[in-house]
Amino acid sequence: MRLLLHLPVLFMAALSVARAASGERAPNFIVILADDLGCGDISLYDGWVRTPRIDRMAREGMMFADFHSNSSVCSPTRAAFHTGRYQQRAGIVDVIVGRDASEKGLPPETPTLAKVLRQAGYATALFGKWHCGHLDESNPTRLGFDEFVGFLNGGADYHRHQAWRNGLKVENVEGYSTDIITERSVNFIRRNRDRPFFLHIGHQAVHNPYQTRADTPETRAADWKQNSVGEVNRSRYRALIEDLDQSVGRVLDTLGELALAENTLVFFWSDNGDVGMAPRPRPYRGTKFSHYEGGHRVPAVAWWPGRIKAGTRSDALMAGFDLFPTLVEIAGSGAKAPPNLDGISVRGHWLAGEPLPARDLFFGYEPKLGTAMRRGDWKMILKDGEAQLYNLREDLKETRDLALEKPEITAAMRRAIEEFKRTVTPGS
Predict the structure, then answer these.
(1) Which residues pair with 387 in a beta bridge?
(2) How buried is 134 (Cβ within 10 angstroms: 0-12 exposed, 13-18 middle, 19+ buried)?
(3) Average pLDDT per run of 10 along the chain, which is 428 residues long?
(4) Domain tally for the chain?
(5) Are residues 160 and 240 in the same domain?
(6) What is the CA radius of gyration of the chain?
(7) 68 assigned to some structural domain
(8) What residues contact residue 21 under an 8 Å CB cut-off, 6+ apart?
(9) What are the φ/ψ torsions at residue 252 (nearest 5 degrees)?
(10) Which of 191, 272, 311, 427 has the maximum number of C-beta atoms within 10 A of its C-beta?
């Protein structure tokens, strides 16, 4: 396995030489990360809210039916994405709430995707949500991003931004969150149209509080429960999704206007499953804060006109930490990526339909939820020594526990989880 991890580096070095000889510019990358958006919410997955711009991405690119966040909550998923490694190695297994200095987040010396791409000559920026540390040492500008305008917490008011940051500086950024994030992103694309860039758009939508543009501090009812899930906020939640979808459209339109679309890979996904706001049955069991599929199987689309075949669907098993090795390999920059990534490059799958190797995938959220594991169609959840086993090909809703009926599979996966917990620890 370690030998295989060096192959992308060799490939990148060769591709870098070829690009330099031809004068070809390295591709741009835009990663759009929604917050608390589940597959059952958007029309691309037969959900209840029309999202025509995200649908357009799928018509012109590749949609994923078995893509996962590395956790069913925000901070661990983001840590895995930025580092390309299991979040347990960074010691981030739960939401960073920032109540005390002990929650330090990602250390500044951490190798990150943004650092690798910046070393390769990319302009880098993050606009929106960070949630990988509240201290200055864990600020995005210390972890590879040239620019950062956004917030450090898990959730925030959509209208009041007194605690936002512009780099390290606390700055009250005026406007509505989705609009601020979109405008900053579009401006960054325009300013960097003549050089390679990596733009991470960390949307606040659709995380609570459920506030639309009309729900200003002056117009909110005193007894309005802004975080409640149910009928009172369902229309607001829909509006947040529609705003998010329009933001995606603005980004795609800007790339088209600047003739950058064919040299820009855009990836859209969510940091965990939904919160159960849908007014009709959802496709999976469980929601955010759950090891069932509804907690971590998320919507995902890759768009790169002329490079990713239009209208394709992937049923391959992938996760957020695969983006790091994939984008670095596609960049072909020659910059040396860390040799110990847990994610794998799926470049060949995206661009040429190559099958992915079989692998185990783990979703740890200890001690609250225990550990979940995928091995092909088999899914295990192990908590406090008690195992649940499901065959997702036959039972996607995870309704029939087969742990007692399949003792050999149960024992083998239990051993794999215990080994995972033993070896994937902070600092490993």
Answers:
(1) 382
(2) buried
(3) 39 46 79 97 98 98 98 97 97 85 84 96 98 95 98 95 97 97 98 98 98 95 90 96 98 98 98 96 95 98 98 98 97 79 97 97 90 98 97 98 98 98 94
(4) 2
(5) yes
(6) 21
(7) yes
(8) none
(9) -60, -40
(10) 272
Three-class SS state of 414:
helix
- The pLDDT of residue 317 is 98
Domain that holds residue 10: 2-357
Residue where one domain finishes, among candidates 334, 357, 380: 357
Give the residue from 357, 375, 409 where a domain finishes: 357
Judge whether 428 lies within some domain. Answer: no
Which are the contacts of 332, defined by CB distance < 8 A and separation ≥ 6? 11, 12, 14, 15, 16, 18, 19, 26
Q: For residue 329, is it within any domain?
A: yes
Q: What is the CATH number of the domain that holds 391?
A: 3.30.1120.10
- For residue 276, what are its two tokens? 């159960």
The verdict on 49 and 188 lying in the same domain is yes
User: Are 311 and 339 found together in one domain?
Assistant: yes
Verdict on whether the full-model pTM lies above 0.90: yes
Q: Look at residue 24 in the predicted model and tell me its pLDDT.
A: 78
Active site residue 131: yes
**Residue 264 shares a structural domain with residue 398:** no
Query: From the DSSP assignment, how many helices (H) and strands (E) are in the chain?
Result: 10, 16
Is the domain of 305 the same as that of 393? no
Task: Assess if residue 84 is contained within a domain.
Answer: yes
* Continuous H helices in 273-369: 293-296, 323-331, 347-352
**Residue from 39, 68, 82, 131 carrying the catalytic annotation:** 131
Check if 132 is active-site: no
pLDDT at site 4: 40
User: Which among 68, 74, 200, 296 is annotated as catalytic?
Assistant: 74
Tokens of 15: 């591709």
- Can you give the pLDDT at residue 23? 53
